Amino acid sequence: MQSKDGASPYFADLPPEIVTDVCLRLPAKSVGRFRCVSNPFRSMLSNPGFVKKHLALALRKVSDSVHGKLLVPSRHLHSVDLGSIRDGSVATRVLAGVKELSSYGLEPATITWVEIIGSSNGLVSIYTEKAGNFLYNPTTGEAKRLPDSIFPNFIDVMVVTSTSKHYGFGFDSLTDDYKLLKFVPSEEGFPCLDVYSLKTNSWNRISCVPFKHIGCNPGLEINGAVHWVVKLLKGQTPKRDVVAAFDLNTQDFRFIPLPDEAEDCKCMKVATLKGRLYLVYDSIDKHEAMWVMNEYGVESSWTKIQLSMSFRSFTPLWSAKNSEEVLVQVDGKFVLYNFEFNTWKNLEFSNVTFRKMFLAHTYVESLISPNSYGNA
What we know:
- InterPro entries: F-box-assoc_dom_typ3, F-box-assoc_interact_dom, F-box-like_dom_sf, F-box_dom, Kelch-typ_b-propeller, SCF_F-box_component.
- This is F-box domain-containing protein.
- By secondary structure, this protein is mainly β.
- It folds into two domains: 38 residues, no CATH class; 318 residues, Kelch-type beta propeller (Neuraminidase, 6 Propeller).
- Helix content is 11%, strand content 40%.
- The protein is built from four helices and 24 strands.
- Strand 14 and strand 15 form a beta hairpin.
- The N terminus is likely disordered.
């Protein structure tokens, strides 16, 4: 027997707080399906307060266990359950559960490649060659095509290798807003920073910044700021390369000096693992080390980590709690690296062809909608 709106009458006998509590513990995809049960369910499960509580629990699960997803770009996007990479003990494994995601409302023929700029709370910022910028929720399939900035676009030379390195993406927890950052050229010869707000669906220009060169990859969000490795203009302090951190709330830059030994590398990038900031190489030369900042913002806490493998590009992506095994992307391939024993295992994907150069990202499944968020 069903009620007039399609809901089961048995739910009417349960206190609403119990139904809500049960649904909060369900995977995001299950909650999405339950929204179709009835209008009352849709209303309850789409409520902004419910969505935020569900996200908070999902983030706790990601930090405590193997919950979470790996998002890999090629001509489309592919996701992998992070928990699946821990099964088995053979040296080379084919990962199960690779799933080609939808093309976020675009015809596949219009997409030649996809770049991931970053992810935050289940929303992923992506850039497509012909369609521009999107905010995309891989779990719900919802996407929002962002308006173009009203300010000048990139000059051609900045687009030749990679557009995404001039971007950054993150969540401003104080204003409850998601922001996309974009460096653009200026008449003065150094970049300005344009900031897109999801809440207002508009762009704002930050005054030009004294950068001579911006690092090799998109900015990375950690501790409420987006980070790049940059070279400052002459006359600026400090005089060497630094990590530039753009505070998403105050919209100000602060600078973190690099370790002394890392000064001479022409191309470095930041990464994050278990909440800590890492400095890694991304260059044509071979390297065998990286750095971790044990206390955020404290220059003296940079610690060098010597690795047992040579690489040109090394990016730590994910590690389960209390695990010495870390998923890393090394020279365009995926590896499980054990920091306790300095050993590694190669990982392989089945039925997926990647571009020669790509950046993978991790994300948590959530119900955050890029389309209704500004109205929450």
